[in-house]
Amino acid sequence: MNVVPFNPLDKRNLGASVADALLRSPSYPLGEVPRVQGAGIYAIYYVGAHPIYASLAAQNRDGDTVPIYVGKAVPQGARTGSSLSATTATWALSRRVAEHADSIRAATDLDIHDFRCKNLVVDDIWIPLGEALLIARFSPVWNSAIDGFGNHDPGSGRYGGQRPRWDVLHPGRLWAERCQPRQESPAALRLTVETYLANNPMPAPGL
Q1: What is the pTM of this model?
Q2: Which residues contact 32 (CB under 8 A, 6 or more apart)?
Q3: If both were cysteines, with which of 51, 107, 165, 202 could 172 make a disulfide (CB 3.0 to 4.6 Å apart)?
Q4: Which stretches within the chain are classed as H helix?
Q5: Is the pLDDT of residue 3 over 60?
């Protein structure tokens, strides 16, 4: 039997160590995440009573297990990698998490108290790989089935694009209301979420 030697420097193993570190991190209510200096990755979890996310909330009832969304925050002009220490001369991670909290607060059918968050300050060069492995591992519904949660206000004069699916399903962000309507209805998107969650059960422990 041919055995492939374990390579601790393989990019997947390096990325997995970053993802593991995030999953071991403490979680906080999304609206009360302590402010930290640095860039990095984060995972948001749902634990509320919204009917289309019932199965997800049940999985997270005894602890934050399956994220509803995974993301990254890199500093503007992030370097391509010149050290192995985490960059702290930025508030990118806390700023990005706060933006998500504001999006949840703006949604008319979501409650900020139903969301929790884990975050981890990471050196810039490992941030994209850590995020990619977490998304591949958990296939979070707001990363995979319903896009747009992480979108920014495109700014004045740039509202010609379609409204993000997330904003059709969870209306409330004022800038999204200025975008062009989509053909998909909220009912169709609710079915998309329910079908997706039914067909993507909680992964086994480990990465």
Answers
A1: 0.88
A2: none
A3: 107
A4: 11-23, 54-59, 92-106, 127-138, 141-144, 165-169, 174-177, 186-199
A5: no
